[in-house]
Amino acid sequence: MKKFILLLIAVLVIFFVSKNASAEETIIPDTAIRFRVIANSNTVYDQNVKIQVRNLVQNELLSLIKDSTSIENTRNIILEHKEELYDKVSNKLQEIKYDKDFKIDYGFNHFPDKKYKGVTYKEGDYESLVITLGDGNGDNFWCVLFPPLCMLEENDNTSEVEYKFFITELIDKFFN
């Protein structure tokens, strides 16, 4: 009888897990503000520049919007500090002797499909702050500023999580 119950539970769990795995989950709400930095190319140098710009701007933005509780407030903060952000990026690029142009655009910008942590984010035009370095032909970084998912990613300690498989624990419980 134990084996039959265990088999039934295993079949039900597999059915529900596979059913839920095929449904794509969206964790970015429709009313969100994204942040994106697009590298000039995929050379090591250009990707390193992208990371330096990302770190600089992301840290600035996160300190500016850390207490923001609405999309309107976050939008206003970004717009009020856009020139300041431009100046900081310009100074950083001069400091590292980067010789390409860059642009900062706030508004509705195009994002391609992106699969991240098993979730597909659909292609489309999204409210965002986009920094394009040089020709913008390289890989990019992106995150969500509002709601503040960038901050959650920065504080993500998933490497300390221990994963256990439910079926294995159930089998161990019944047969050990």
Largest sheet: 4 strands, mixed
Q: Tally the helices: what do you get?
A: 6
Q: For the terminal residues, how far apart are their CA atoms?
A: 16 Å
Give the spatial strand order of the biggest sheet: 2-5-1-6
Commentary on this structure:
This protein is an alpha+beta fold and 176 residues long. The protein folds into two domains: 2-23 and 165-175, no CATH class; 33-156, no CATH class. Helix content is 47%, strand content 22%. It contains six helices and six strands, in the order αβαααβββββαα. It has helices spanning 2-22, 44-65, 71-80, 82-95, 149-154, 166-175, and strands at 33-38, 102-111, 114-116, 119-121, 124-133, 140-146. The strands form two sheets. The chain has a four-stranded mixed β-sheet with strand order 2-5-1-6. A two-stranded antiparallel sheet has the order 3-4. Mean pLDDT is 80; it is low at 17-24 and 155-167.
Provide the fold topology.
Layout lengths: L1 H21 L10 E6 L5 H22 L5 H10 L1 H14 L6 E10 L2 E3 L2 E3 L2 E10 L6 E7 L2 H6 L11 H10 L1
In short:
By secondary structure, the protein is α+β, with helices and mostly antiparallel strands. The chain contains six helices and six strands, in the order αβαααβββββαα.
Attribute tags:
four-stranded mixed β-sheet; alpha+beta; 176 residues; two-stranded antiparallel sheet
